[in-house]
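User: I'm new to structure prediction. If I give you an amino acid sequence, what do you actually give back? Let's try with this one:
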Amino acid sequence: MTKRPPPEQRPARPFFSSGPCAKRPGWSTGALDRALVGRSHRAAPSKARIQEVSDRSRALLGIPDDWRLGIVPASDTGAVEMALWSLLGARGVDLLAWESFGSGWVGDVVKQLQIADHRILEAEYGQLPDLSRVDFERDVVFTWNGTTSGVRVPDGNWIAPDRQGLTICDATSAVFAMEIAWDRLDVVTWSWQKVLGGEAGHGMLALSPRAVERLESHTPAWPMPKIFRLTKAGRLNQAIFEGSTINTPSMLCVEDAIDGLTWAESVGGLESLIARSRANLAAVEKWVGTATWTDFLAEDPATRSSTSICLKLVDEWTLERDPDEVATAIRSAVRLLEDEGVAYDIGAYRDAPAGLRLWGGGTVETTDLEDLFPWLDWAWAEIRSRAS
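Assistant: Good question. You get back a string of structure tokens that encode the predicted 3D arrangement of the chain. For your 388 residues, that looks like this:
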């Protein structure tokens, strides 16, 4: 194999990690100058800044006025766990899983909460479960976008509008980048460190009126840790959804979240953010169409993620090698790109098939992706040459 020199053009911002994700273009630590550090999070100015995150998120995303929206501990994971522990158990539950995070929620419901009346609808990486099998007489738990497989649900039309159960949706790599069918959902969760490139440790929990009614009418059979409690004396704890967080938030992170929301507003809001993400996916699709060694992990273009864009290896060299050798080779390619300073953290998730994962959310510039593609071709050719 002929060795090629590395490309000359480099991405201006080599940040393609799928979480924490790229900061917004032009970000610097100066964005945090207004942070109310050294202040109590319960002081009136601090509480107002915390609530501002929820208010601006609601406006940008078009969350219905009668939904509750609050900031909770432990990122998207904490938000999902709060929903599962607080809301499930009143009826049977259908659990959808086609990648690692969905599988994690299955494990929590089955092994930790031990809800006997459960059904697991699974699919391999690159596919979706049969959505027509979902029973909306039951509660339903699913991810809108499979962050580690690059496969998303096509829309919300598969969800029954007259459902009897609750729909609990982990949407952390979908909100601010994809259209969300709020009228078909009852619980939606996400974190700051995904699509708007915020800092870690804080989650967002959005509850429909139906979810609030469940909270106030159903008492779970299991003990409820303090950090998960959404009710007080049998009623929704309104303070959580009015800027009074359960535990102490970072005011630096709060300020950074406001900065990301301000930038999103400045570029045209949700419509523009979705368009930016779709443009990134389109650029990857164009390049993959010419690449002979890689393809999308998502088998159906209609359910292909525009944020967590997952790629698999399909060249003859790969097919002739042992899977462990291939995994070692792709790790070497990822390290080579990092050493060159052109792409950081783009290896596939540890539980996913060996390959690459490029973040395509709105904080990533399409031109940076376009400048990256020649480097991907070069790195894989270089690693195969070394291994031959």
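You can read the tokens as a compact description of the fold. Here is one thing that stands out. The chain is about 35% helix and 15% strand.
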